[in-house]
Write a structure and sequence with these properties.
The protein has helices at residues 138-159, 207-226, 239-255, 259-281, 292-313, 319-328, 336-344, 351-359, 364-374, 386-401, 440-456, and strands at 2-15, 25-28, 33-36, 39-54, 67-70, 73-77, 100-103, 114-119, 129-132, 168-173, 182-186, 191-196, 378-382, 407-411, 414-418, 431-435, 438-439, 460-467, 470-477, 488-493. By secondary structure, the chain is of the alpha+beta class. Among the domains are: 2-106, no CATH class; 256-333 and 342-376, no CATH class; 386-477, Pdz3 Domain (Roll). Strands 14, 15, 16, 17, 18 and 19 form a six-stranded antiparallel sheet that branches. Strands 1, 2, 3 and 4 form a four-stranded antiparallel sheet that branches. A four-stranded antiparallel sheet has the order 5-6-8-7, with no helix packed on it. Strand 3 and strand 4 form a beta hairpin. The longest helix has 23 residues, at 259-281. Bound molecules: zinc ion (ZN). Zinc ion is lined by residues 219, 223, 243, 246.
Length: 496
């Protein structure tokens, strides 16, 4: 793709608004022009120059690729190509080649984010505009679009705010170098961009995979309503509000679909509660006081818990939809203070739990559970499941015996060790079945307790392995601490 720049006055240096990703493959066309990640420089004052931008392969640090493939066309991140002193978005025009079309975003600044330039594709006009990579299976694109349409309708009705224009959905293929299964984001122009690893997709439509994809799409769709209205004043200590909002509304949208989906949402909510509280056990400061790495690690789980509490607190006054309708219609955008002040206008039980989570408390876990209970939610401590027990049992043994890389791969209740020749008696990449005869699938807690005893007395424990079809038992020492799995919860009752 060629980008042609017309500057208002002759200049020797053109600075980009931010440095381009190191992977951006930009070539200068004219003589006497040189390119660096943050600027283009000229050996004589110029008003017109061109850059040839070729597609990126990998995204790094959440920075957007400037140009990447999307189907038979291209996905362009327009803001990356803009300069500090101009051109501004309002000055940019994009001329698609003959027979090609431009699909901008639906938002008020249609070029402020990803746009598509390429051949028109059947089905890309009317309703949601979906542009997809032909390498992706039709069912995945269709299910993603259906999830977008149904969650968008749910949010529009609940918030009573119409979405900015018809949704635009890009469904692309992740480059093979990327190790994730899917990623997604929404740029400020309202384009929802989902990318999937084609080589990791199930061979055909798979219910379990769809159960993961639908909430993911619904989460991204809520970001369309949030747009770029989050005020950055709160920085990393406020993003839980944006992410927790998207996550909690995604769960609400699922719950509205079917009773089975509502059960799944409740399980996810319980998981997030358990993970959030386990993280916060190590903290006395709350979400607004965390160090950056902790803020990132707790954003989704604790953000969701905060939104859940707020929804319950506001249940007599329109719930979380009313709260977000208020936040999203504030003239200067929204932030944590607006969230807090609109909650304080509706005093309710549970406020102490919300305050403990946000500002900190001596025992955040206890405060949050007590708040949930006062708001009519009954949770009980649940078995964390075979995967958590097996992890808690096997990790201290791997840590005690491995000298290099180590890992556990869990698939369908089988736990395969990634040990190579690096882990003493546990070497050989075998499947771990049980500890001291306690099988992970039926007696995970007992397996963990056997390890706990061995580790606390610096003793050995018998690990039952499967080497192909052959059972082996090895004696394994432990000299590491053996923390139990995170406390898991089950939601027993919620208010009507
Ligand atoms: Zn998000």
């Amino acid at each position: 793709m060629t980008a042609e720049y017309h500057l208002q006055a002759p200049t020797l240096r053109f600075e980009f608004d931010g440095p381009l990703p190191v992977e951006a493959r930009v070539t200068v066309i004219e003589d006497g022009v040189s390119f660096a990640a943050d600027a283009v420089t000229f050996d004589r004052p110029l008003t017109v120059f061109s850059l040839l931008v070729r597609p990126d392969r990998v995204r790094v640090d959440a920075r957007y690729p400037v140009v990447s493939r999307l189907g038979e066309g291209w996905m362009i991140h327009v803001p990356s190509l803009l300069g500090q002193a101009g051109p501004h978005l309002s000055d940019v025009t994009i001329e698609p080649g003959p027979g090609w079309i431009l699909i901008p975003g639906p938002g008020s600044e249609p070029l402020n984010g990803f746009v598509y330039v390429g051949p028109d594709r059947p089905g890309s006009s009317g309703g949601t505009k979906a542009i997809s990579d032909p390498a992706l299976p039709d069912w995945l694109v269709a299910d993603s679009q259906a999830a977008l349409d149904s969650s968008a309708a749910f949010y529009a009705a609940g918030l009573n705010i119409v979405p900015p224009g018809e949704p635009v959905l890009f469904v692309g293929a992740l480059p093979e170098e990327d190790r994730r299964i899917y990623v997604g984001d929404v740029t400020p122009n309202g384009v929802i961009n989902l990318q999937f690893a084609t080589h990791m997709l199930p061979p055909e439509r798979d219910r379990r995979f769809i159960d993961l994809v639908v909430p993911f799409v619904a989460h991204e769709t809520f970001h369309v309503w949030q747009g770029d209205r989050y005020r950055e004043v709160d920085g990393v200590n406020g993003r839980w509000l944006t992410e927790g909002g998207a996550e909690y509304f995604s769960l609400l949208a699922q719950s509205a679909v079917s009773p089975a989906a509502a059960d799944r949402s409740r399980e996810v909510l319980a998981q997030r509660l358990g993970r959030c509280l386990s993280r916060m056990d190590a903290q006395t400061g709350g979400l607004v006081n965390l160090a950056e790495s902790e803020a990132e690690a707790t954003r989704y789980d604790c953000g969701t818990v905060s939104q859940w509490l707020a929804d319950l607190q506001m249940s007599g006054s329109g719930g979380l939809f009313a709260l977000w309708r208020h936040l999203l219609t504030l003239p200067d955008g929204y932030g944590v203070e607006d969230f807090r002040s609109s909650l304080s206008e509706h005093p309710a039980q549970g406020a102490t739990g919300q305050a403990a989570l946000l500002d900190g408390a001596a025992d955040i876990r206890r405060a949050v559970i007590a708040a949930l209970s006062s708001l009519g939610v009954d949770v009980e401590i649940a078995d964390p499941g075979p995967w958590s027990w097996a992890n808690a049992a096997l990790w201290p043994l791997l840590q005690s015996n491995c000298s290099g890389m180590r890992g556990i791969a869990g698939d369908n209740g089988r736990f395969t060790l990634d040990t190579g020749d690096r882990c003493g008696p546990l070497s050989g990449d075998m499947e771990a079945v049980a500890i001291a005869g306690h099988r992970f699938d039926t007696a995970g807690a007992a397996a963990f307790h056997a390890v706990e005893v061995a580790c606390s007395s610096q003793d050995e424990v018998a690990v039952n392995l499967l080497d192909g079809e052959t059972a082996r038992t090895v004696s394994v020492s432990c000299d590491q601490p053996s923390p139990p799995p995170e406390l898991a919860y089950r939601i027993v009752a919620v208010p009507d």
